[in-house]
Amino acid sequence: MSPRTIRPAARGAPALRVVATAGATVAVITSAGLALAATFTVPTALPVVTALQIGLIVAIGVLLDMFVVRSRLVPALATDAGPRIRWQAVPTTGPAFPEPTRS
Description:
- This protein is mostly helical.
- About 65% of the residues lie in helices and about 0% in strands.
- It has helices spanning about 1-5, 15-40, 50-80.
């Protein structure tokens, strides 16, 4: 989501960019989350109780991540961060990995 908010075509206040970006990515996130949750519910058909429990817990975690974290929490934190959300786009001075010193 972050690269879409910092591209030059996205203009306006950071909150408006976050709303536009979240609206553009919601279909992809929802379909991927539902497919992943459905995949993790497959072990619930097995007669092993441990597989049933693990499958349900992971599927519930994926749905919670999809509906709460990615759809509400991340856009809210991105709006609160404002211009600091673009920390990836800030060029650094000097090499990314300094040369090791030999002793």
